[in-house]
């Protein structure tokens, strides 16, 4: 039996989860044009790399948790 979610809030939370996850992955990418070193010691796309990655992945996890809890059938 397939689960079909027809509520608009589910889609919004799914997109939010995906965007935060992708943003977390983008923060750790090396960038030769970066002006400063990140806290891990290389020129990353974001200078606050380990902290910003953890925060983005935490928000992705929270939105995923809310999506599962609010729209469980």
How confident is the prediction overall: mean pLDDT?
88
Structural class: mainly alpha
Major sheet size, sense and barrel closure: none
Question: Roughly what fraction of the amino acids lie in strands?
Answer: under 5%
Count of DSSP H/I helices: 2
Supply the number of structural domains.
1
Order of helices and strands: HH
- In terms of quaternary structure, the protein is single chain
Our measurement of the CA-to-CA distance between the termini, rounded to an integer number of angstroms, reads 12 Å
Radius of gyration: 16 Å
Q: Using DSSP, what is the number of strands?
A: 0
CA-based shape: elongated
Helix content: 55-70%
Instruction: Point out poorly predicted stretches.
Output: none
Helix and strand topology:
Layout: H1 8-27, H2 49-70
Helix pairs in contact: 1-2
What brief labels describe this structure?
73 residues, 58% helix, mainly alpha, single chain
How would you explain this protein's 3D organization?
It contains two helices and no strands. The chain is an all-alpha fold and 73 residues long. The protein has one domain. α1 (8-27) packs antiparallel against α2 (49-70). The relative contact order is 0.21.
Short description:
This protein is mainly α and 73 residues long. It has helices at residues 8-27, 49-70. It is 58% helix and 0% strand.
């Amino acid at each position: 039996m397939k689960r079909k979610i027809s509520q608009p809030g589910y889609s919004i939370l799914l997109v939010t989860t995906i965007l935060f996850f992708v943003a977390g992955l983008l923060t750790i990418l090396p960038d030769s044009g970066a002006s400063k070193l990140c806290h891990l010691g290389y020129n990353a796309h974001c200078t606050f790399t380990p902290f910003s990655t953890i925060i983005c992945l935490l928000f992705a996890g929270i939105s995923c948790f809310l999506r599962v809890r609010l729209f469980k059938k």
